[in-house]
């Protein structure tokens, strides 16, 4: 079997684009990969096109060889856009390999440890507001503390056992204070204001009060708050028994200091590439849980990172707020990893999310049932990709 053609698609995913890679073979087996990039999808496509010239005619079963060949072709561009293209190609090859052998991808990664995977509802509340701003949401926008309380009751009844939210702009007058998150400057300085602290506390207190003590609650702040700002925020959150605070830094020592300064569990890692990138954070024990983006690292590298994390007693949670295909990619690796903790999913998404895939992933009582279908577990519908394509 040989690779005969490689094609890319950039598809409207609402508040972020979805980037897919399709690899065809001379035996008719097709593989799909995810190379989602929120800011530079078409640049990623260009790298896929560049690498395609070296891949046509190769045996798609040689996933390890092709991964490292692609890395070598992009060795002046380690990480970033280049690795996203490599990841998309890599997951498409695993899809082909599983289909050719008649087994799920998790079988290729060592076999299934978990039959079902605990989920958390990501962009919980904030995602609805993003979709509403694009006129893509069936739910009402969350603008006030009262709206948030009503929404939190809906979340409580959803069956999810955990959620992750963001800092939202909310108007309300609990205790006489108007909670409105000020806009951050284009270049954030990493500090946190009193107003922002009060805004976060208002949001988290509502979720904790309504959803109860058993609900896992996480807050995602990305690179917004650094060191001192992150420590202030983490300490403020301690009474709420958080599942985690998500904070990013390119300094492993800074992340270690944040973790050692608070009882709030710290998660980071979604913006890092390769074992070389994760190693100093793991060696420093700079986090309670490591987050790995598989659309940016691929399955070949993703498996290596999860095993490295296990060697440092660190659970992992995949970064999975891209396309529905990424959920299948993440599910296959998570099923085969003993240090899996919890899987992210965008429960509320664009109305055509389910239209672009042939097999839907199954959620029961807040858990994803690991698919047994050969390959990743689903196909993409090319007509629908073209229908929602970003030109």
Q: Kindly provide the name of the CATH class of the largest domain.
A: Alpha Beta
What's the structural domain tally? Answer: 2
Please tell me how large the radius of gyration is. 21 Å
Straight-line distance between termini: 32 Å
Instruction: State the secondary-structure class.
Output: alpha/beta
**Overall 3D shape:** globular
CATH topology of the largest domain: TIM Barrel
Mean model confidence by pLDDT = 94
Sum up the structure in keywords.
13 helices, 2 domains, alpha/beta, four-stranded mixed beta sheet, 391 residues, Enolase-like, domain 1, six-stranded parallel beta sheet, TIM Barrel
Polypeptide structure, described:
With 391 residues, this protein is α/β, with parallel strands linked by helices. It folds into 2 domains: 3-102, Enolase-like, domain 1; 108-377, TIM Barrel (Alpha-Beta Barrel), CATH 3.20.20. The protein is built from 13 helices and 13 strands. It has helices at 41-55, 63-73, 80-101, 105-108, 126-133, 145-156, 194-211, 227-237, 252-260, 274-283, 294-311, 324-335, 382-387, and strands at 3-12, 17-25, 30-34, 116-121, 162-165, 216-220, 244-246, 266-268, 289-293, 316-319, 343-345, 362-364, 367-369. Strands 5-6-7-8-9-10 form a 6-stranded parallel beta sheet. Helix 9 (252-260) links the parallel strand 7 and strand 8. Helix 6 packs parallel to helix 7 and helix 8 (227-237) packs parallel to helix 9. The longest helix is centred in the N-terminal third of the chain and has 22 residues, at 80-101. The two termini are 32 Å apart.
């Amino acid at each position: 079997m040989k690779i005969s053609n490689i094609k890319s698609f950039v598809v409207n995913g609402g508040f972020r684009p979805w980037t897919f890679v399709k690899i065809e073979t001379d035996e008719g087996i097709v593989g799909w990969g995810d190379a989602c990039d929120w800011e530079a999808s078409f640049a990623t496509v260009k790298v896929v096109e560049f690498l395609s010239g070296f891949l046509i005619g190769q045996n798609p079963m040689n996933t390890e060889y092709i991964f490292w060949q692609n890395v070598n072709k992009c060795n002046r561009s380690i990480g970033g856009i280049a690795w996203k293209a490599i990841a998309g190609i890599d997951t498409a090859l695993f899809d082909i390999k599983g289909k050719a052998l008649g087994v799920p991808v998790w079988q290729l990664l060592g076999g299934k440890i978990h039959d079902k995977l605990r989920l958390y509802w990501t962009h919980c509340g904030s995602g609805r507001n993003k979709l509403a701003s694009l006129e893509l949401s069936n739910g009402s926008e969350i603008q006030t503390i009262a709206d948030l309380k009503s929404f939190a009751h809906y979340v409580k009844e959803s069956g999810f056992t955990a959620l992750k939210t963001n800092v939202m702009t909310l108007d309300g007058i609990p205790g006489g204070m108007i909670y409105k998150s000020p806009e951050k400057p284009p270049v954030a300085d990493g500090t946190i204001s009193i107003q922002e602290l009060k805004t976060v506390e208002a949001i988290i207190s509502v979720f904790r009060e309504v959803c109860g003590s058993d609900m896992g609650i996480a807050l995602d702040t990305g690179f917004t708050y650094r060191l001192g700002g992150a420590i202030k925020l983490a300490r403020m959150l301690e009474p709420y028994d958080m599942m985690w605070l998500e904070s990013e830094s390119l300094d492993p020592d800074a992340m270690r200091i944040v973790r050692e300064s608070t009882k709030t569990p710290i998660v980071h890692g979604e913006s890092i590439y390769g074992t070389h990138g994760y190693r100093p954070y793991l060696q420093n024990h700079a986090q309670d849980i490591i987050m790995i983006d598989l659309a940016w690292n691929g399955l070949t590298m993703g498996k290596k990172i999860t095993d490295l994390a296990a060697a440092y007693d660190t659970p992992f949670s995949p970064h999975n707020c891209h396309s529905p295909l990424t959920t299948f990619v993440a599910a296959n690796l998570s099923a085969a990893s003993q240090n899996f903790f919890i899987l992210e999913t965008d429960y509320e998404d664009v109305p055509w999310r389910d239209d672009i895939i042939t097999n839907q992933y199954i959620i029961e009582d807040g858990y994803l049932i690991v698919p047994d279908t050969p390959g990743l577990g689903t196909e993409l519908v090319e007509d629908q990709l073209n229908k929602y394509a970003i030109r």
